[in-house]
Amino acid sequence: MLKSERKGKRILWFEKLSKEDIPLVGGKNANLGEMLRAKISVPPGFAITAHAYHEFITKTGIAEKIYKTIEQVVTDVNDPKQYEEASKRIRKLIESTSMPSEIAEEIKAAYSELDRRLIPKTIDRFWDKKRDFLLRILLFSFTLFWECS
Length: 149
Fold this sequence. Notes:
Number of domains: 2
Strand order of the largest sheet: 1-2
CATH superfamily of the largest domain: ATP-grasp fold, A domain
Structural class: mainly alpha
Mean pLDDT: 86
Radius of gyration: 24 Å
Distance between the termini: 67 Å
Order of helices and strands: HEHHEHHHH
Low-confidence stretches: none
Shape: elongated
Strand content: under 5%
CATH class of the largest domain: Alpha Beta
Helix content: 55-70%
Number of strands: 2
CATH architecture of the largest domain: 2-Layer Sandwich
């Protein structure tokens, strides 16, 4: 996928990410992509992009409220407490704002895909553990039977 095509995406899967995507998905997500490229085992997952966030704050009309909160609360750029207070207010604003349906549907679809990717691995691990446990019981039973005979 071309870099220009990625900019308009709301969701990007870890396996598609690299360090070049830091501005789009942040450092932690981009590093998960790098780990996968280096063949390090990482659970499947996805990142919600900066584009999705920008779309959320503009479509809901809270972008101006966010900027206004920062302007009103942060009067001294050297006072970290003011940033903390602005952050608390902005978080409340974001959490109380309904997500536009097209963004919500895309995120729900990504979670459904994540379930699809995870369930077979989880079931395989479950059966592997159950099989190992049953084999141990069988071996123990056989040993006990052998010793008692």
